[in-house]
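Q: How would the structure tokens look for this protein?
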Amino acid sequence: MTEAGEEVLGYRNNRKTEWISEETWTQIEERGQIMKRLLYSNSPRLKDKISKEYRGKDKEVKKSARRDSREYTERLAKEAEVAEGKKDMKTVYQNTKKLKGDYNQHYDLPVRDEVGAYVTVEQDKLER
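A: Here is the predicted structure in token form.
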């Protein structure tokens, strides 16, 4: 079943969220490393020390993420204002939808048939 799924559907591409900066991603990874150390520590004193470190890093990550979100929102609003001045309504509508929060680009995952060609018709995809 797994092999058939990998063959037909392929792997999902992991996309990073566009509004989170690289600095924040590195802080998130550091926080994950601290959590691993916390999970594998046995000593109660060591667990207390590492948990304090984790709480501090968690606060930094959340603060950085809030800053990134604010900057992203301001950047989209400025882009929409500039596009409106140039009468580029497509960009205005796209940025407005993103700011509103209902903006999802629906990526329709490709499905291959037995020969290896992509199936495009929805009914054929469901049958496959």
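Residues 44-85 form the longest helix (42 residues).

The beta strands are 111-112, 118-119.

Upvote if useful.
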